[in-house]
Specification:
The chain has about 160 residues and is α/β, with parallel strands linked by helices. The protein has four helices and eight strands, in the order αββαβαβββαββ. Helix 1 runs antiparallel to helix 2.
Amino acid sequence: VSVAHDRRTTGAVVDDQTIELKLYNALDRGLPPGNHINVTSYNGTVLLSGEAVSAQARQQAETLARGIEPPVREVYNELVIGPPSALSSRSNDTLLTTKVKAALLQINDIPDFDPSRVKVVTEHGVVYLLGLVRPREADAAADVASRVEGVRQVVTLFEYIR
């Protein structure tokens, strides 16, 4: 992440990296084996995506996320209960993420829009968008992402600025 283009403070970027590392460690120690959990932190907002082996493991992951320091401001628990996704599904999600990031480069009618400010996470064909954006930027990013072939749904988890 280039801090020069990021609307988060340098401290927030470091905090997000710290939250992700600490939470991966906590999940590894605190959950039963067999989960496939992705952790994304953006400006103190945590997205949990992937698969949990049980409802209890899903809830425990959220509880662990809420207890991480530096403090987590919000947790979006998008974990699905079930076995870990197949490698082919994960590969497809990686491809979709790349396609969405490329599509965001086409947004050139909004002054000061920088596609690198939009964090893209894909799980099971569902694209999650995070970032510190203006409402017009959010609408444009969601619209462009929704038009990418293979995207089943777009979920916006943006934090709005003026």
